[in-house]
């Protein structure tokens, strides 16, 4: 499957908002509003996972090569994956949601 076909918009299964595809050649893998994701990939972008569980953003980490990342945990199977925080100009990741995750994970 081509990268163009895989990078599609979607309706967030957590908050119900419309999420637009990215324009920078990367994959949109989480909602920029609530930061939730779906467990649909085995390898980022492959859409090969059969789980389909909702992935909750549980903390924010810093990676010296990739910058700030959201750690998502699947609420169905427990799988964890890190995803880069996105600064797409059309729909950047919500700074309020990021701050809330940081505040909650520090408790």
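^ structure tokens above, recovered residues below v
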């Amino acid at each position: 499957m081509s990268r163009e076909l895989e990078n599609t918009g979607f309706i967030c299964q957590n908050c119900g908002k419309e999420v637009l595809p990215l324009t920078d050649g990367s994959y949109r893998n989480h909602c920029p509003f609530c930061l939730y994701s779906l467990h649909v990939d085995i390898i980022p972008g492959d859409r090969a996972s059969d789980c389909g569980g909702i992935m909750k953003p549980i903390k924010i980490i810093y990676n010296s090569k990739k910058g700030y990342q959201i750690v998502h945990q699947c609420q169905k199977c427990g799988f964890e994956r890190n995803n880069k925080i996105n600064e797409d100009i059309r729909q950047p990741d919500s700074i309020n949601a990021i701050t809330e995750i940081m505040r909650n994970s520090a408790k």
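The longest strand covers residues 54-63.
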